[in-house]
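Subject: for your reference before the review

Hello V.,

The reviewers asked for a structural picture of the protein, and I figured it would be easier to keep everything in one thread rather than splitting it across files. Below is the amino acid sequence we used in the manuscript, unchanged from the supplementary table.
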Amino acid sequence: MRWQRLTCRRSGGRGFSILQGRERLMEDRKKAEGRIVWETAAPQDTYDLGKQFGEKAQPGQVYCLDGDLGVGKTVFAQGFAAGLGITEPVNSPTFTIVQQYGGGRLPLYHFDVYRIGSAEEMDEIGYEDCFYGDGVCLIEWSELIEGILPKQAVRVRMEKDLGQGFDYRRITAEGIAAMAGQQE
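And here is what came back from the structure prediction:
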């Protein structure tokens, strides 16, 4: 599947693209070293972007989701799960650390490591079986376990800018050079 795109103009003449034909979902792409930047204007847009990532996900991939509290990591994860074909409710596993979801084309291991004190705690929950298995991993707050992340992990950074609007998000993905090459 290819990223769907329409090219439009924003005030100031700067171009952007609308994914999946949604007027509020703006994409400002920067392909330097496998980095792509999207701008979303509503939670549904963030969900839809997550869904596109889920549709492209392959076995053994690890996606790191980082950003402040309330920036939309779980909304992105819900869309990602939908892209895998998972229909059950997806919530942030804040207290359980990891939640496994089946029923889609791949198993999804959704981690929230906000309360992890050390990499040793990740050993206790058997993270390697998830990171290096046949499913796909989403890890919220991944910067807290930087030392154990696979080098080929896709990094997704989510940021707010209230000057752009309450629901505005800037979503930067790095490490997706292979995916970027498939988009054109």
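For the response letter, the relevant points are probably these. The helical segments are 43-56, 73-83, 119-124, 127-131, 177-183. Residues 43-56 form the longest helix (14 residues).

Happy to draft the paragraph if you're swamped.

O.
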